[in-house]
Design goal:
The complex is a heterodimer of chains A (120) and B (747). Chain A has 120 residues and is α/β, with parallel strands linked by helices. Chain A has a single domain, classed as Rossmann fold (3-Layer(aba) Sandwich), CATH 3.40.50.2300. Chain A has a five-stranded parallel beta sheet, with helices on both faces. Chain A contains five helices and five strands. By secondary structure, chain B is an alpha+beta fold. Chain B has five domains: 130 residues, Four Helix Bundle (Hemerythrin (Met), subunit A), CATH 1.20.120; 124 residues, Alpha-Beta Plaits, CATH 3.30.70; 60 residues; 179 residues, 2-Layer Sandwich (Heat Shock Protein 90); 146 residues, SH3 type barrels (Roll), CATH 2.30.30.40. Chain B is built from 26 helices and 21 strands. Chain B has a five-stranded mixed beta sheet with strand order 6-8-9-11-10. A five-stranded mixed beta sheet of chain B has the order 19-12-13-21-20. A five-stranded mixed beta sheet of chain B has the order 14-17-18-16-15. Chain B starts with 8 loop residues before the first helix and ends in a 7-residue tail after the last helix. Classes of the chains: A alpha/beta (120), B alpha+beta (747). The interface between A and B is large, with 48 and 59 residues.
């Protein structure tokens, strides 16, 4: 099954995301910020990265930029979890190389359907 | 698949409380004169996380309330609005309000929204007052998101209305050249489009933009497509498929039957099958091939999915069962809500500790070693003969080491940095300072000093009392300080550090210091010291810890809550700790608290009385001396005291206290252990001093009942139970004895 790297500084969000995705059979690894996520991504190639935007140390936008520098992650889908209703964060994400976004709050069903859209 | 989100609530509350604490402490760091961007960012991030989590986990009240806070913070963060003190105060109030709301929700109650309503109005007033660039789009988008339409990706409802063509759509899709580099694959979109309808879709590729092979960049996408989707599909659904790329790709949606001539021509270029289309770029080709392979495997996946469904259901029901008692306790706590309101408790009974992974890993590691040792010993024991004695001893030594390491690691899990107890003070000092009109600097040192969680919880209130006291009585008013040539703002220093197996916490102020004359006069007036007594400065300082002592001329609501220093001292003594005060007139006072690192383990002195073993806390022992048998006989009497150097100390015979029967005669070669509790020395007569060792304290109260003079029990290496003596408790027994003056005569 596809592997997913879930990045969020909020433990509850991360657990919810991981629980949902694991329940659907995905292989999920959690990371608490961009720095940890980048280290994990370098260790192993994931099929999809799911990242919060607002995080300490390295935020989601910087994370996407860094990921796109890695040969393994040139084409890997990266989805941003964002509460920003304003369009500029979405655009910043896109410019950094994010594939798309999921708007918080979302429920587990919405999360799964979006992930399945991307991973097929 | 439906997931019970309530299982994440506990974590959400914990992190939200932490977030609120962080907001509070950062807000206190914030000054309108010099706004630190990172500080504002941290505050924003905390509010933002709380809002996001609250929305996800269904706490609409919280997320709605936090929304306005977040908006204002965002304006400040982005420089659209200048920060004022009013903002900071308002934010601090919202933190309080959010905390109260969360506490109610955590207890299973509905939060009281009146306060939130008031604050929301104030926020709205500020937001409306000076119209910055509040994007109107933000409002619209929020609506869509909270309506939850369209698979997590906000889709404008307006578009949904003008939807629905009965026959189908033709879509012209010209992707951006670098579309693949954002992880967006055209193939995914085609697959999604196919998912919208039963009838097979038609995909025609346009290769006209393909450059010469030599000029071809394999990572670029030169192709464009025309897709025909047949059936009743809403335009909004089509748009949702392309939502992530609509801004940088050219996409036209044309209802079938409305195509113009030119559209028809456009299709004529090159038409191939989907698979062939994908061949054109390397990357797409590889992926497409994978997809085809995956597609054949789809059925298998579906089967395994349903097979997995059952265990998942089981897991859910287990979670539900576990959750049930929690709900019950939530109910019971709801019943007690009147009492609970008085002191907002966080977490209640099901409190948890956050432990770093490192600590857990080292534990697991050690358990692994323990298992190895155990299996080694087990093997040795199966056919043991004396030739293997050396190995046995080696194994036992290893076991001892494992056990000690395990004990240390487990203790470490309970250790938390004292910043948890300190964190409330910046706010407390700020509010109190404002209330009293005193300027105060708070300095906190040694915040990373670790302390047992239980000790931490119990030391909180005494510390608050000490700090309030320092602020209220210790620090002078600004005028007095000026007159005394001191800096205008007073300083209160909280310092924590380790010292010889204890943790020391100091509360220091640079105020007026203790007024010795006043204290002595008051003590004499209350009959706490004889009228003619002359005491040293230090002795006078200790008087403030006596019950019934309060020098405040007028009881204020800050430190004069009927709780005196005696209660502070009693609370600290209950933790096996001590408190003392150092003070110098004019320069300030320092309260020094000494606490054991943990309550679960005690450094004990084992003593023998008759054939029983008792344990004295090592910290309370002043000295131990040989006692001549004759002297012991001489000191029997109704009020046995003994002159030890220049002091008369009361003597207590432990065998009499516990009514022990002696096999032979009286004490053979008695020892006198001089202990100190409640600032009183007592000599306790015992038969013998045994070793000193750390003992694990078992509660008598929980297993039997409270016994005066005994603080607990422990199990010794040989399996016998030894009682741990409560020094101040046994001192009271002595008082009771001497006042009745009966039983001692039996000697």
């Amino acid at each position: 099954m596809a592997s997913i790297l879930a990045v969020d500084d909020s433990a509850s969000m991360r657990q919810m995301v991981a629980f949902t995705l694991k329940g659907a059979g995905f292989d999920v690894k959690e990371a608490a910020d961009g720095v940890a996520a980048l280290a994990e991504a370098k260790r192993r190639k994931y099929d999809l990265v799911l990242s919060d935007v607002n995080m300490p140390n390295m935020n989601g936008i910087e994370l996407v930029k860094e990921l796109r520098q890695l040969p393994d992650y040139k084409f890997v889908p990266v989805l941003m979890l964002t509460t920003e209703s304003a369009g500029d964060v979405k655009m910043q994400g896109k410019q950094a190389g994010a594939t798309g976004w999921i708007v918080k709050p979302f429920n587990p069903e919405q999360l799964l359907s979006t992930i399945k859209r991307v991973l097929g | 698949m439906s997931i019970d989100l309530s299982q994440f609530h506990q974590v959400f509350f914990e992190e939200s409380f932490e977030g609120l604490d962080a907001m509070e402490s950062e807000l206190l760091n914030l000054s309108p004169d010099s706004v630190d961007a990172e500080t504002v960012n941290t505050i924003f991030r905390a509010a933002h996380s709380i809002k996001g989590g609250a929305g996800t986990f269904g706490f609409v009240q919280i997320s709605e309330f936090t929304h306005d806070v977040e908006t204002l913070l965002d304006e400040i963060r982005s420089g659209q609005r200048a920060l004022t003190q009013t903002h900071v105060d308002l934010f601090l109030q919202t933190v309080d309000c959010l905390r109260a709301m969360m506490t109610s929700l955590n207890d299973g109650d509905q939060p009281d929204m009146t306060r939130a309503g008031e604050l929301k109005q104030q926020l709205k007033a500020i937001l409306a007052g000076q119209q910055p660039v509040v994007s109107s789009a933000s409002g619209a988008d929020d609506g869509a998101a909270s309506n939850g339409s369209g698979g997590g990706a906000g889709v404008d409802e307006a578009e949904q209305d003008e939807s629905a063509s009965p026959r189908g759509w033709k879509i012209r899709f010209v992707p951006a050249l670098d579309i693949l580099q954002t992880g967006n694959e055209p193939f995914r979109m085609f697959r999604e489009l196919q998912g919208l309808t039963e009838t097979p879709i038609e995909v025609l590729v346009n290769q006209s933009a393909l450059p010469e092979f030599s000029a071809l960049e394999p990572e670029q996408c030169y192709l464009s497509w025309t897709i025909r989707v047949y059936g009743e599909v809403a335009e909004a659904d089509l748009r949702a498929v392309f939502e992530w790329v609509e801004d940088d790709c050219q996409i036209d949606y044309i209802p079938l039957g409305q195509e113009s001539e030119s559209d028809q021509e456009g299709d004529a270029v090159v038409a191939t099958e989907l698979q062939a289309a994908a061949d054109s770029t390397d990357e797409t080709a590889n992926k497409a091939a994978d997809e085809v392979a995956n597609a054949t495997a789809v059925e298998d996946t579906v089967v395994t999915d349903t097979a997995k469904a059952e265990p998942t259901v089981d897991a859910c029901s287990v979670v539900a069962e576990v959750a049930a008692p929690t709900a019950a306790s939530a109910n019971s706590s709801a019943n007690n809500s009147a009492a609970a309101k008085a002191k907002p408790s966080r977490g209640g009974d099901n409190s948890s500790i956050r432990v770093s992974i490192d600590k857990v890993d080292s534990l697991i590691n050690m358990v692994g070693e323990l298992v190895i040792t155990q299996s080694m010993l087990g093997q040795l024991g199966q056919d043991f003969d004396l030739s293997r004695l050396a190995r046995l001893q080696e194994g036992l030594a290893q076991l001892e080491q494992n056990t000690r390491e395990l004990q240390e690691s487990v203790m470490k899990i309970r250790m938390m940095p004292i910043s948890f107890a300190f964190s409330r003070f910046p706010r407390l000092v700020r509010d109190l300072g404002t209330q009293l009109g005193k300027k105060v600097n708070l300095v906190m040192l040694g915040e990373n000093t670790e302390l047992d969680k239980t000790v931490m919880e119990k030391i909180g209130d005494p510390l608050v009392h000490l700090v309030r006291n320092s602020l209220d009585h210790g620090l002078e008013t600004t005028e007095k300080r000026k007159a005394a040539g001191k800096p205008e703002s007073g300083t209160i220093t909280l310092n924590a550090f380790h010292q010889g197996g204890n943790i020391v916490i100091e509360v220091k102020d640079d105020g007026a210091g203790l007024n010795e004359d006043k204290i002595l006069a008051k003590a004499k007036q209350r009959g706490l010291v004889p009228a003619e007594a002359s005491l040293t400065s230090e002795e006078i300082h200790q008087l403030i810890f006596l019950p019934g002592f309060s020098t405040a001329d007028q009881v204020s609501d800050i430190s004069g809550r009927g709780v005196g220093m005696d209660v502070v001292r009693r609370n600290i003594n209950e933790l096996n700790g001590t408190i003392e005060v150092k003070s110098q007139r004019g320069t300030g006072s320092t309260f020094v608290i000494r606490l054991p690192l943990t309550l679960a383990i005690l450094d004990g002195q084992l003593v023998k009385v008759c054939n029983q073993t008792y344990i004295f806390p090592l910290v309370s022992i002043v000295e131990s001396i040989q006692l001549q048998k004759q002297k012991l006989n001489n000191i029997s009497g109704s009020q046995p005291v003994m002159k030890l150097r220049d002091e008369y100390i009361p003597i207590l015979r432990l065998d009499r206290v516990f009514n022990l029967r002696r096999a032979g005669d009286d004490f053979d070669d008695p020892m006198l252990v001089v202990v100190e509790g409640d600032n009183e020395k007592i000599g306790i007569v015992v038969d013998d001093l045994l070793g000193q060792q750390q003992v694990v304290i078992k509660s008598l109260e929980q297993n039997y009942q409270k016994v005066a003079g005994v603080s607990g029990a422990t199990i010794l290496g040989d399996g016998t139970v030894a009682l741990i003596i409560d020094i101040s408790g046994i001192g009271k027994k002595l008082e009771a004895r001497t006042s009745t003056s009966g039983p001692d005569k039996a000697a």
